[in-house]
Amino acid sequence: MNPPVLAFNFLPIRFSADEFKGGLIEFQSPEQLADLRAKLADSHVVAKTRTGIACIPVQADTDAHGTPTTFRTRDHRSLTMRLVQEALLRSVLGWGYKVRRRSPPVFVSRLAGRDLLEPSVRGRHQEALGRLHVYPEYRLDGRTIGPSNHPGVIVGVKSRHEIDMTVDELIHQGLDVRGLYVLSEDARSEPDPRMDHHAARRAVGAVDHVDGTDLVLRDAPGATRIPACNAWLESRRETFDDVVRALAGADSARILKELEQKTFDLLGAFGRYEGAVKIASRLGRLGHLQVTSDLSVIIQQPVGSSNGTKVTGTYYPSPTFQFDQAGDKTSKSADRGLDEYGPFDVEFFAKKKPRMAVITPRAHKGIVETFLSKFLYGIQGERTFGLGFIRKYHLSGADVSLHPFDGATTDADAYREACRGALLSGDFDLAIVITSEAQAQLTGDSSPYLVAKSAFMGQGVPVQDVRIETVRLSKLAYPLNSIALACYAKLGGIPFVIAAPRALTHELVIGIGSAHVKESRLTAPERVVGITTVFSADGNYLLSNTSREADYDDYPRELLRSLTDCIDLIKKRNAWQKGDELRLTFHVFKPLKDIEATAVKELVQRLTQTYAKVEFAFVHVSTDHDWVMFDRASAGVNRGAGGRAKGHYVPERGHAVPIGERELLVSVSGPMDLKSALHGVPKPLLLKLHRHSTFTDIEYLGRQAFRFTSMSWRNMYPSRIPVTILYSDLIAELLGQLRHVRNWNADAVTTKLRSSRWFL
Q1: CA distance 214 to 226
Q2: Which domains does the chain possess?
Q3: pTM above 0.70?
Q4: pLDDT tens sequence across 174-196
């Protein structure tokens, strides 16, 4: 294997001087700042700084405004990069583009030949589809520091789907628009000639029904009725594809397949890298980009490119899995380790002969029985899952009770009655429910999946659903392997942990997630549920807790209560002593807001009064960013004879590159992890250490977060986010769905199911 040649979509910049001149005015109010920006828009960049309002002239012959001040680039990095972004905005406008957003500059390239859909629209479809477009959208985001340890610009790119036909025109083409969200323009707003007119359209509601030439809306924050000729469909990918299918008919499959290839050419790893190089070259041709009257910058080629700054990083090897408390039984493969040693808790797992209820439509009884036999006893001749559930997890057997019922896989009422009947017949440790893809879009009381979950989980019985389409597969080894892993964890078992460095402190890794509960998308008031998952340093899931649903203002108090309950339980379980030292690492998927940070800090302060030393780290774990990591030496992996390689320019898992002292990028999906040759480039994990943290070893925290991406007990494969975040997301998603099922007992997950991984 060739050594990696890492690169990024980051263009370093070099300043012409170490300082620049401008004026400084005392900050008095936001209104004063807005007035200054409007007054000086054509001549100055106006920005709020730590010491006041900076007014920086962008042309040499511009009068000074405010107290004359010299600003050093090193001391005013945020201000300096604001000046760079304003210069980039002027450049983009100078190229003839209109922008969707000013800071950072976001623009759509609608030049001839840039429409990704156009080449696929031929013959009679040209007129029908001529006003549907898919264009590249670029974002130039200035950053004070990057992988080269220098300031620079991230080049972001995405595909922008646009439907330029009004809803009225689409209705006349036969499209059913009921339930779809629509956009409209505010006739009262003054159009900005520099702004893309599409950016002025805002979501105004979902179509309830069509009344003549009007759309009657629901979930509408404003008017509930608008003319169809003044509305456009929201151009989400699924809506766009539905419009293509409606307008192109049988030819839509070809069109969408060709569009997928064109989109991959733009958004795949190699396409994104080439795009960053082209943007850098175009900006480079500008020479010295003037950012103020006395300061300019040169924009360089992407970091890691053949002409760019070399990237230095660290490689994190895959973790070692552990299958006993002493640490003598280890393997680099979780699956092979389970086959060889059995689960981590084999000596003390209590449910050696679990009682399992199986709920299935009677029409599938025969094939389900065959499936269950393979699940329990394995698939003969197969290397993967040849042992079966019982032998692989060292069980003495399984007491399986089949409960067939008369009804279709979409009959929620029949499922409810079957579940009730099973619960009346005896006590169970686990329920296996056969569902189907046909019910995937059903919600609330109409969903057999959710109704079954609600019925069993409300009585403290975790549920494993298996789709009938999976049951029918000719090759079942890999699906059964993952199903068995999840079932053992739902029974309360510990399949494996990670061999982690031994610390001198009691160490907990805590995931903090939140479900933002809204009855409707645009109008309903928001309420928040805090989700807390707690793990030991070796990745062992200890427990989870869910706060009560609360208004946003009351959320910090509820979060603190939930965290305190978790810590108190762990404290008693592990018998912490007053002289002990603690380290708490908090993983949060959204940037830690002040109210959340305050709640966590209050908890830490309480612990500090009891224990000898308490360290804590707040780590924002994110994939919602524009950073892209490339490996120019990666040719990808071949998919067998005649198959197209996947993962060209995609780095392997485990490459870590620091961004300054408090941020780290880690690749968590390699070429083998991509689903297909047309899979877009995977995002690296971005770790940001909060400034209030007292434990600040970002290298240690990065390795820990990477290990936790291999710790999911949902399947045998690594995930793209640590389990701290993954489990919180799964809990939030399932609880959000179950709250719409009548008679759902939400208290069950914090009482009877507390030690179960019911959400897997």
Answers
A1: 6
A2: 349-490 (3.40.50.2300), 503-622+688-750 (3.30.420.10)
A3: yes
A4: 899 999 999 998 877 777 888 89
